[in-house]
Amino acid sequence: MEFFFEVLIGGLLAGVMYSLVAIGFVLIYKASGVFNFAQGAMVLFAALTFVSLLERGVPFVLAFLVTLAAMVALALLIERAVLRPLVNRSPITLFMATLGLSYMLEGFAQALWGAQVHGLDLGIGDEPLEIGGLLLSQFDLFAAGTAAVLVAVLSLLFNKTRIGLSLRAVADDPLAALALGIRLQRIWAVVWAVAGFVGLVAGLLWGARLGVQFSLSLVVLKALPVLIIGGFTSIGGAIAGGLIVGASEKLAEVYLGPFVGGGIENWFPYVLALLFLLVRPAGLFGERAIERV
Amino acid sequence: MLYREAGQFSSRYADDRRVFRLRQDRLGLALLLVFAFAVVPWLGNDYWFGAILIPFLVLSLAGLGLNLLTGYAGQLSLGSAAFMAVGAFAAYNFELRVPGLPLPASLLLGGLVAALVALLFGLPSLRIKGFYLIVSTLAAQFFVPWALTRFGWFSNYDASGVISAPKLEIFGIDFGTPAGRYLLTLGVVTALFWLGHNLVRSELGRNWMAVRDMDTAAAVIGIPLLKTKLLAFAISGFFLGVAGSLWAFAYLGTVEPHGFDLNRSFQVLFIVIIGGLGSILGNFLGAAFMVLFPLLLSNLAGLLPGGLIDAGQLENLQKIVFGALIVVFLIKEPEGLARLWQRLRERARIWPLRH
């Protein structure tokens, strides 16, 4: 039984890491209706920039700020060069544009900083900690704490600031927001910048876990089922989805894996998401679209 | 002046319903087919067949498969490569386990198995819509290569899951030479494009387009969503499955499940976007672009003074240019290369006048 709880909690904590990537998705989808496949590439770009600066002797805080500035610049550029010309196009077109964007970002990040694997040490040990008789990874606890802080900061931003109010207005009804004089383009730039910031945090944690390398951009594939279970429009849903995926993935690997020969973690979350969707077609917390003819 | 409909009158309804109404189009197509079937096999060399023409044809067919599903029926799919893999491995197993089965039959059966698998993964489309649906096709994309690697039976217990092409022989005629493989591919692709083009003009094709434009509205006017969507998945799966077997047998010769990974799915998706969603010709244009563009880029890089761009950088550069091209295409020409071609035709019609 103890082993079961260890696996369960380990899975839950690992799931938080997925949520971190999914939150970036949700922000952009809510504000601009864009299904941003490039979130993974943004994570890679942020982590690679950060670690390369660090390796060139830039102090930690400065590297963080410079990377953040780069992500903001990137957001402005994306809004200007991709989103604005594609305004009012179908969601599928926007999705494909982000596919192109992710190719560009991956190519650019690797052309700029090289394709080798970088180690990233955030100064958090990975030795397991014993809490209440359960062995838990210190790093995972730290990641979960970071995610909690991030969500708190985001909810402050959304609920207590003027810009957050306009973000919510745009998410609620873009046309009405436009009529009230909210500048849609600025909101998009802000939201992509915030998603870039979330991507940076996710990139640091994932980079410290896996090493900063190309495969980092594949975390997007881990985040997708999370997002789908939680629903595209809810940050809470992204967290809940992450917990569900993380826990069930680990449990399935341990208890189901031996029967089918292991290696099921690639597709298991998708099948799980599919089962959830069959019951709730817009995810757990997603908005159900009402269709009129 | 040459390309004009003047003097070609429709005197029967059947004339009006022809696929190619212009005599010039019919003639052009006939000439093109004669050229492709009779002249190219004598002209081409191994490099042209192996590295350009065969992958071009197979990718066009894969593009058509996805285009039927995404461009015509409006169901976004990121699992094309999985259905290609199913087709390839199924055809391989039919060829292996049923002695004396002719090659066309095993291609057909491979396609049918892929259609069944696609149907299975298309079932959720009845309940799930839009972006949520990509989870279903992505599930196929990750599950299929895993299953093909995991269960040795599929690859006849090969240690690394690799399958090799059977002897390419139809009724005693050997198609194993490069020109033979080209002819085999060309024949299959021509037949399936003929089928596909007629499909999208049929009642089913029109139902697909109605579902694509708005499925609630389509249901209201009495289009059976269940049948229409599932047929889209199954038929798309069939085309992709045949494309997969050709990819394995005629192009690569040996293939492993991971040759059909997510990147291959994206490649097929890009063919469809660049060529033109909801266009038959677009698949050829997109596939030609997909095959020729990397060659062009590496040749251009070769022209630069030696060592300026190494292989790794070239790959990155290729990615950047590719991504940029996709974005530019979506902004400037959302209907793809097929639309450019159409415009060119309209210009040719009124040439030498401008309006």
TrEMBL record, chain A:
GO cellular component entries: plasma membrane
Entry annotated with the keyword Membrane: yes
Family affiliation: Belongs to the binding-protein-dependent transport system permease family. LivHM subfamily.
Subcellular location: Cell inner membrane
Entry-linked CDD domains: TM_PBP1_LivH_like
Regions crossing the membrane: 6-27, 34-54, 60-82, 94-115, 135-158, 190-212, 224-247
Entry keywords, A to Z: Amino-acid transport, Cell membrane, Membrane, Transmembrane, Transmembrane helix, Transport
Keyword rRNA-binding set for record: no
Topological category with respect to the lipid bilayer: Multi-pass membrane protein
Protein name (Swiss-Prot/TrEMBL): Amino acid ABC transporter-like protein
An annotated Gene Ontology molecular function: transmembrane transporter activity
GO biological process, one term: amino acid transport
Source superkingdom: Bacteria
From TrEMBL, chain B:
Compartments it resides in: Cell inner membrane
Recorded topology in the membrane: Multi-pass membrane protein
One MF term in the entry's GO annotations: branched-chain amino acid transmembrane transporter activity
TM region positions: 27-43, 49-69, 76-94, 100-123, 130-148, 182-200, 230-252, 264-282
Keyword Cell cycle on entry: no
Entry's Gene Ontology cellular component terms: plasma membrane
One Pfam match: BPD_transp_2
Keywords of the record: Cell membrane, Membrane, Transmembrane, Transmembrane helix
Name used for this protein in its record: Amino acid ABC transporter-like protein
Protein species of origin: Azotobacter vinelandii (strain DJ / ATCC BAA-1303)
Lineage summary: Bacteria, Pseudomonadati, Pseudomonadota, Gammaproteobacteria, Pseudomonadales
